[in-house]
Recover the amino acids of this structure.
């Protein structure tokens, strides 16, 4: 049986991954910086555990080198991914994570040659960020190989985990108005860009957001113009426009710390009933210079459930493969990867 480490196992999503792993008969070693948080979970699930902080450079590298693979689930990843990626490269250990953060994707791809030299795979984004959207990007681009424009939109329900909430606060500097134009990441003229999108179940208002596909879909498809959208109620979009100036306050250290404190005290994440009943929805459209277009629609499990199931799917595939370098999920395993995750249904035409 493969020897792999789930780091950040005590977090909301880390616990979900650990529990689903045990249900699948997998035996990850659980890792984190706090024995008080990791040990009870390990004992509950009958798993081994290790305690190490990401700032313990030598100790971290020595521990990581004992494993075939690390699935990194400790965010916000802008603070945690760099030391773990470095440790995995030195330790010659495959690295996967569940980030959706653009800077982390860019950082991973900047280490392509080091990953090849170490004969390992770096694959960030093996959760809801970005498996379903990456697969949909690959799917429509495969059906329109000369596409030069890609749009992706998604809707999730059920609320956010503490980690996702903190990531949103930490990423406030990126803003909503970011897209890929002519191969480069660019700020859009308007901070909040709206688009009406017909999903498989209904038409919804969306706004552009800096989703990970601005990096991953570019690598998976080669399409130079990409915009990503998130569905929100019209009233909430209007409120965001009205008070967008207030978002700048989160750049101020004390205010940001208050927001992060609030998250620690009040945000718990979706419960099991929500995870087992709620669906997520994705739409993708590729267009070529002649104006030809290919659209597709996807329904999946609730976002955090998909993250747990999808990350484990990628862990097993990486361990069974000879992949080296830096890869996206769809780039490595194809557009149908998401279809192997329970709850996924894809449409080439809108269901009647």
């Amino acid at each position: 049986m493969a020897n792999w480490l789930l780091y950040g196992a005590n977090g909301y999503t880390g616990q979900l991954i650990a529990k689903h792993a045990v249900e699948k008969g997998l035996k990850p070693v659980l890792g984190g910086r706090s024995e008080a948080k990791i040990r009870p979970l390990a004992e509950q699930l009958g798993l081994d555990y290790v305690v190490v902080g990401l700032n313990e450079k030598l100790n971290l590298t020595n521990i990581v080198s004992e494993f075939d693979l690390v699935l990194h689930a400790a965010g916000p990843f802008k603070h945690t991914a760099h030391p773990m990626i470095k440790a995995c490269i030195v330790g010659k250990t495959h690295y996967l994570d569940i980030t959706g953060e653009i800077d982390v994707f860019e950082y991973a791809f900047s280490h392509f040659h080091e990953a090849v030299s170490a004969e390992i795979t770096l694959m960030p984004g093996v959760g809801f960020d970005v498996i379903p959207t990456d697969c949909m990007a690959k799917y429509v681009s495969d059906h329109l190989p000369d596409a030069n424009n890609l749009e992706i939109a998604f809707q999730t329900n059920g609320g956010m985990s503490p980690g996702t909430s903190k990531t949103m606060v930490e990423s406030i500097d990126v803003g909503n108005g970011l897209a890929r134009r002519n191969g480069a990441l660019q700020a859009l003229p308007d901070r909040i860009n709206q688009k009406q999108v017909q999903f498989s179940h209904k038409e919804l208002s969306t706004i552009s957001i800096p989703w990970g596909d601005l990096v991953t879909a570019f690598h998976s498809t080669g399409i130079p113009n990409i915009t990503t959208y998130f569905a929100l109620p019209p009233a909430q979009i209007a409120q965001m426009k009205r008070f967008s100036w207030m978002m700048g306050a989160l750049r101020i250290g004390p205010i940001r710390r208050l927001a992060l404190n609030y998250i620690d005290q009040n945000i718990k994440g979706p419960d099991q009933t929500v995870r087992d009943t709620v669906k997520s929805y994705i739409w993708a459209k590729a267009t070529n210079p002649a104006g030809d277009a290919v659209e597709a629609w996807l329904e999946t499990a609730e976002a955090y459930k998909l993250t747990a199931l999808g990350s484990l799917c990628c862990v097993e595939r990486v361990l069974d493969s000879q992949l080296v370098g830096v890869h996206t999920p769809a780039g490595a395993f194809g557009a149908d990867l998401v279809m192997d995750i329970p709850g996924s249904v894809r449409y080439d035409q809108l269901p009647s």
Q: What stands out?
A: The chain has two domains: 4-127+305-333, 131-303+341-347. Residues 165-172 have pLDDT under 50 and may be disordered.
